[in-house]
UniProtKB/TrEMBL annotation:
Locations listed in the record: Nucleus
Domain of life: Eukaryota
Ranges of compositional bias, category Low complexity: 309-320
UniProt feature, compositional bias: Basic and acidic residues: 277-308
Name of the protein in question: Chromo domain-containing protein
Coiled-coil portions: none
Transmembrane stretches, start-end: none
Length: 320
């Protein structure tokens, strides 16, 4: 007999069985007390309204978490009340004068005030009417004493005689001549240039210094400079100039001299010509050596190229 075709849902026994999953979905981890403290607002710093909604700038329990703006409903009511109870302006703060620093007088006399509990960034100029009279009196007395001591020191300096310890050098000529003076009892930082008229108490010292300086300068003028050698040459307006190294002087004293000034130094000029010839020969040798090296390298490259071409041709012949 042919089997009858049934309609409808299959029986439970005929339906495929589902495999039970071995995976267990864990419960959400419970937050520890430390985590709850980190996510807790501990202080309110500021308040503003954004699009009709009140928000507060808050400090979190986690020091690494940045301050942020939080809607009012998420901020503890006691922190909001504490913030709003604190004074918003300086009107409720009492300022106490620590000391007066300076004064400027005009239509209204003002004093520079340092306030108790504040640093110099908060110093301000205030009219005398707003300041305690005892502070003003103490400041004025101190200023008066300071001015009198300054005047005494100034008068002492004016009465004090400065003694010349040593004349170091001089510059200028005639009435414009100045002397570099080291004063007795003072450091080199107080050395000064003085005209001769200011050195009336040291006329003998000035005369001796001028005598020695004149003799020294005369010897310097009489001294003949001896040419040690010529170290370089250049052409200036179609005429040769020679860089001269002077005997007994370092190379920073080298000077350029024309041929006329070296007329008495023919032996030095001849040595220089020989030096130039040697330099030219050496340069020529170096050039020839460099050209030879380049030619050899070029030849090697050509030989390598030909050798590679022959190898390629042999490979093609073998393949064919």
């Amino acid at each position: 007999m042919a089997a009858k075709k049934g309609r409808g849902q299959p029986r439970k026994s005929d339906a495929p069985k589902r495999k039970s999953s071995s995976k267990i979905i864990p419960d959400a981890p419970k937050r520890t007390l430390r985590q709850r403290e980190v996510d807790t607002i501990v202080e309110v710093l500021d308040e503003k309204t954004v699009k009709g909604e009140v928000v507060f700038r808050c400090v979190w329990g986690d020091e690494n978490k940045p301050k942020s703006w939080v809607p009012e409903e998420k901020v503890p009511a006691e922190l909001v009340a504490k913030f709003r109870e604190e004074p918003d302006s300086d009107e409720d703060v009492e300022y106490e004068v620590a000391k007066l620093l300076d004064v400027k007088k005009g239509k209204v006399t003002k004093y520079l005030v340092r306030w108790t509990g504040f640093n110099s960034d908060h110093d301000s100029w205030e009219p005398a009417a707003n300041l305690p009279k005892n502070k003003i009196a103490a400041f004025n007395k101190k200023q008066k004493n300071a001015d009198s001591s300054d005047e005494e020191e100034k008068s002492d300096d004016e009465d004090r005689e400065y003694a010349v310890e040593k004349i170091i050098m001089r510059k200028g000529v005639g009435k414009r001549r100045l002397y570099r003076i080291r004063w007795a009892g003072f450091s080199d930082a107080h050395n000064s240039w003085e005209p001769e008229e200011n050195l009336g108490g040291a006329k003998k010292l000035v005369r001796e210094f001028n005598k020695n300086a004149d003799e020294r300068e005369a010897k310097q003028m009489e001294k003949e400079y001896e040419v040690e050698k010529i170290v370089d040459e250049k052409t200036h307006y179609s005429k040769p100039l020679y860089c001269v190294k002077w005997h007994g002087y370092k190379k920073n004293h080298n000077t350029w001299q024309d041929a006329e000034s070296l007329a008495d130094c023919q032996d030095v000029l001849e040595k220089w010509e020989l030096t130039k010839e040697k330099r030219a020969e050496k340069k020529q040798e170096q050039t020839a050596k460099r050209d030879k090296k380049k030619a050899e390298e070029r030849k090697k490259r050509e030989e390598a190229k030909l050798s590679k071409a022959a190898e390629n041709a042999a490979k093609k012949a073998t393949t064919a």
